[in-house]
Amino acid sequence: MKTFLNQNIANEIIRLKKEKNAIILAHYYQVPEIQDIADFVGDSLQLSQNAKSTDAEVIVFAGVHFMAETAKILCPEKRVLLPDLEAGCSLADSCPPEAFKKFIEEHPEHVVISYINCSAKIKALSDVICTSSNAVKIVESFPREQKIIFAPDKNLGGYINQITGRNMVLWNGSCEVHDVIKAEEVIRLKIQYPDAKLIAHPECKNIILQLADYIGSTTALLNYSIKDPSKKFIVATETGILHQMRKSSPEKEFIIVTTDEKCSCNDCPYMKLNTLEKLYLSLKNEKPEILLPAELIEAARSPIIKMLELS
Ligand code: 13P
Ligand code: SF4
After folding, report:
1. Helix (H) or strand (E) holding 232
2. 243 pLDDT exceeds 70?
3. Domains of the chain
4. What confidence category does residue 259 fall into, taking pLDDT thresholds of 50, 70 and 90?
5. Which atom of ligand 1 is nearest to the CA of 44?
6. Which among 59, 71, 99, 172 is least buried, having the fewest CB atoms inside 10 angstroms?
7. Residues near ligand 2 with C-beta < 6 Å?
8. How far apart are the C-alpha atoms of 307 and 128, rounded to whole Å?
9. What is the pLDDT of residue 154?
10. Integer Cα distance of 297 and 120 in angstroms
11. Using the 8-state DSSP alphabet, how is residue 105 labeled?
């Protein structure tokens, strides 16, 4: 019954998409039925590149608020819809603009590199944006002697400091989904599955990254799981990515690192606010729509464009 209903909703979404010249962009952390109906599924960088290059007049962003905001900044002339306006991000919320402005003032002569998981106001205060897939490249585009502030993710920033040998000043922010992944649980799974590879997103704590066989953005983790000959993978990131991993390699086993013994998943509560029904309604009613003041779009745009040029 549920599948029949979902199929009807999916058919209506396809019809409305055509009628309205709309495109659906979905992040890997979305529920499987949204990923399956999307025109494009990808990581944060790929999604912003797609938003920038699409000819569609309407972008339905199946992701969280900062992602839809980024699409609006890149395409101010388009209607950008987010199925649930409450789909925020704990990492973006961990960096309030007023406090961050003060932090920048306390660190003169520093350039500001901000991870894309931040609000438009933080982007406007930054020199350049990065994502987990291009952070090393963006940081390395600055001379070694350049002082740098990296915000808002202290885990990603710490990891980039380690691999580049830099000493960037880190804003003390983190993602509530990745930062709570425990080493004890990872070690327990490594003992239970001795022949499995541990793959981790760089938003995880340093101790988890030290245990990992491979570290990368969601797309990089997916590609690694396809190319690596291992048959089992312990996955330290959000559950949604397992959908594409299982689709691409049905013969392989993927074990998610859970943070709660009662749950067999590691879900981002914000990403999971979007449902197929909400996606249908947003396309039908063309709301909730992302609207931003023109000055904010103007100020936040150049650090994002700089990132896309450097990527
Ligand atoms: P990527 O899509 O860059 O891997 O980032 C993951 C994430 O946390 C998105 O919110
Ligand atoms: Fe934000 Fe973390 Fe959810 Fe990504 S997984 S949207 S960083 S809270």
Report:
1. strand 232-236
2. yes
3. 2-88+271-291 (3.40.50.10800), 91-174 (3.40.50.10800), 182-256 (3.40.50.10800)
4. confident
5. 2
6. 99
7. 64, 89-91, 117, 175-177, 238, 268, 270-271
8. 6
9. 98
10. 8
11. H
